[in-house]
Amino acid sequence: MSRSSPQPAALLRTLARCTALIALASLPLASRDTSTQSPTATIGPTSRIVPPPSGHRFPDGQVLTFTVEWHLLTAGTATLKVEQASPQRKVTGTADSLGVTNVLYSVHDHFQAVFDPATFCSLSIVKHTEEGPHRRDTNIGFDYSRRKSTLSEKNLKTGENKHDENDIPPCVTDVLSGFYYLASLPLQAGTSYTFPVNDGGKTADVRAHVEGREQVRVPAGTFAAIRVSCEAVSGPLKGKGKIWVWFTDDATRTPVQMRARLTWGTLLFRLQRMGR
Questions:
Q1: Which residues pair with 270 in a beta bridge?
Q2: What pLDDT, on the 0 to 100 scale, is given for residue 35?
Q3: Which of 67, 87, 105, 253 could be a cystine partner for 12, CB 3.0 to 4.6 Å?
Q4: pTM of model > 0.90
């Protein structure tokens, strides 16, 4: 391994962090007219979240499974599922290391986010993370009446507890359901969207740009796709990396491939299978 390449432990730590990026882009949607949508939240002059149109259908019960690759090495897998948790919607994501990487730095993470399907506003996030020697349980809530996010985290190894509050705008999305929100918008080449994302810390603005169309081949098949790039333009995520997402160029807008460019290299996420 060259001096410029990351060590396996660093690779797996990044895999765990990138699970959020995978989850951002991993849920399909139905095509619809968005001409009646209006902003429900702003952070700065342009960042905003708009609600889904009347009659929008969520792909309840669908499970997407991705492989995570680095330099042709399969470092792990990730899964995502959306389901009804009446009257809300729940998104569940997992990340697991595989093979040699699992021996060198084990990662077994479970994430769950709940959001309001009428507004796309996030309501809560629950995380159980096992990354190397670290074990943590994290709960994040969004109190829109006080404009605060609240974080409670317990270190399962030391017993230490952490509590934090941060300001939020009237509506935010989160790292699990943020690109699900993006996928609900028109994905026309050349257009850009900016929206607020919060993961219990400071709110960040994420900008997505629809770059164009191309064909991609993944284990699940060959697809005509729309390529969208995403990166934070403000807040703690700014400058931490950039991701590209390939959505199928049809009514389902299913994400079939993602690439995360980080400071030391690139991870590739490819759809292995989809089911229920």
A1: 67, 257
A2: 33
A3: 105
A4: no
